[in-house]
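User: Could you write out the 3D structure of this protein bound to zinc ion? I've included everything you need below.
Assistant: Certainly. Input first, then the structure.
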Amino acid sequence: MTWLSGLLPDPMEPRSGVRNVPEVTGPGCIFCAIADGEAEASAVHTDERVVAFMDIRPVVRGHLLVVPRRHAIGLADLDPDDGAHMFRVAQRMAAAIRRSDLHCEGINLFLADGQAAGQTIFHVHLHVLPRHPGDGFRVQLDPRFPSRSELDATARRVRETLA
Ligand code: AMP
Ligand code: ZN
């Protein structure tokens, strides 16, 4: 999936002499600035934990983002209660979009955790993507066909590190 790139400063640019560490928080984070009301956004919902606003480069009409107010880069440092609320609000956004006149027949939720996953803004956020047939949005999937034993072995590797 191709997401916005090149239009905003590269968040992986080294800062303050720290190399390969994404921006942490503060004035350089556009989503912190939006949450603090210091940068403009087309808000749909705000509460004490999250803000939801229209994506500035929508890949489909109605594409919006749900963003925890408290800065976290990704899933590893996201407060689980913020994460749960982010999902709860995304669910409400999806219901509102379906009720709206945006001609929505389906919804995708998408979260990019890390640069390899396509994350470009290093303040965790959940994309809400209204879908309808012929909207041109595509996720290219190239499934593999592993044996059951390979699936079991992979499951074991993940189980071993479950906290
Ligand atoms: P991701 O690639 O998952 O990190 O997505 C970042 C998203 O943030 C992209 O879809 C951008 O279009 C969106 N975005 C970046 N800056 C802004 C902004 N100022 N207001 C709204 N959306 C933004
Ligand atoms: Zn931030």
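The chain is about 25% helix and 15% strand.
User: Perfect, thank you.
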